[in-house]
Amino acid sequence: MALPGLVVNITSKAFDSQMVIENFSLTLGQGEFISLVGPSGCGKTTLLNLVAGLDTQFDGDIRHNGAEQNRLGYVFQSPRLMPWLTVMQNLELVCGDCVTEPNKILDQFGLMDCARAFPSQLSGGMQRRLSLARAFSIEPNLMLLDEPFLSLDLPSANQLRDLLTEQWRQRSSSVIFVTHALEEALALSERVLFLSSKPMQLIHEYRVETSRPRRMGCEELEREARRLLQKFPDLLSG
């Protein structure tokens, strides 16, 4: 593994009297892509918010290493676009921190033709494409993605998975990707971390051996998922 770009040690995270995360550790290499898989409500989004610094109320330590300037991109479950702003204006919201020129970003993500459109005029897939473009526009050291392709049909989701992989490989960003779908995690990641139900803990770590490129639905990836679940049948039960 490369030198760690992120080191997470969470002794405990609770909301009121309910323990959400307990004795959880994670090391992420620079430029590494990992996925988190676990039951609904186990604390995956809470973990991302802690890493992002949106929530600082926890016991433990989170260290971002190896970068002169920490730049963090966050793609949420919903696109979170401003409906009264155009595609270009939504991108320009973060362009005080932009490393890449906005027109170039729109071109890279196939959005130039709709630069003057409003979010309501875009399909769900295009809205999520814009959300992804906005996060990558700052050339982040670390990308957090919280089920970013949720509710998309398979062709649209596959297009965005391919785009995400392409943009990640062109950069040195480290990525934490949250998903409920094992096959999606195997298609995208170098490592998959399986999480328990609350209080969330790491129950298994798996390094993906299937060579890239990987697409959901391919026979090799399906075989790998079956082998993994046959060996560890309780992984997805939390």
Q: SSE string, helix = H, strand = E? A: EEEHEEHHHEHEHEEH
Q: Main sheet: which strands, in order across?
A: 5-6-7-3-8-9
Structural class: alpha/beta
Task: Report the end-to-end length measured between terminal Cα atoms.
Answer: 27 Å
Number of helices: 7
Count the E strands: 9
Oligomer: single chain
* Average predicted confidence as pLDDT: 88
Strand percentage: 25-35%
- State the CATH topology of the largest domain: Rossmann fold
CA-based shape: globular
Rg result? 18 Å
- Uncertain runs are none
Number of domains: 2
Largest sheet: 6 strands, mixed
Q: Helical proportion? A: 25-40%
Q: What does it look like?
A:
There is one protein chain. By secondary structure, the protein is of the alpha/beta class. The chain has two domains: 1-70 and 142-153 and 167-238, P-loop containing nucleotide triphosphate hydrolases (Rossmann fold, 3-Layer(aba) Sandwich); 81-140, no CATH class. Helices cover 30% and strands 26% of the residues. The chain has seven helices and nine strands. It has helices at 44-52, 87-92, 102-108, 124-136, 154-170, 182-188, 219-231; strands spanning 4-15, 18-29, 33-37, 59-64, 72-75, 142-146, 174-179, 191-195, 202-207. The strands form two sheets. It has a six-stranded mixed β-sheet with strand order 5-6-7-3-8-9, with helices on both faces. The protein has a three-stranded antiparallel β-sheet with strand order 2-1-4, covered by helices on one side. The mean pLDDT is 88.
